[in-house]
Amino acid sequence: MSIVASASTVFTTGAAATVTLAVYGDADFGTAISGGGFGLSAAGGAGIVDGMTGAAATWGLLGEQDLGHNADGNYNGLIFGQLIFPPFIPAAAESMLGNGAVLLGNITVSIGADTNGVIDWSTVGGIGDFDLEIFDEVTGGFTALSGAGVSHGAVSVNVVSVPAPSAMALLGLGGLVAGRRRR
Description:
Order of helices and strands: EEEEEEEEEEEEH
Strand content: 35-45%
CATH topology: Immunoglobulin-like
């Protein structure tokens, strides 16, 4: 599994901000991802993260279950899945392997206003019975992957609050501009 942030730096001056974490899965065998589950482990999120909501990729909505968050950047889990019953119900095109990583779901993170820090997220498994389940069209079988069979990715997001300029600084800047115009 891999994780990609919508921004590597988030500015929170005077207002809350959001960043989206997209989680992808891939396998070197099989035809499609039929389902799975993942969580996010965070270092540095306490006091910065206000909320988190998860949404499975459209192909995995049949089995979607959002397990919520702990308000510290740790995400309890997102379970997703689809029904595959060949030849009557084929795997969704978006879940097919062989064309790069498959989007598993997005986690939208609300960052508190005027907060600073670095949050390091990594994907974790162990949500449910397996991390990923792979469907193989040739054999018609399903393979559940978990533990050492799944590698987990990580991403860092820098949260920055730039102090608002004071009224005196703005007046001073205005005085400099006005002084230059008279000459």
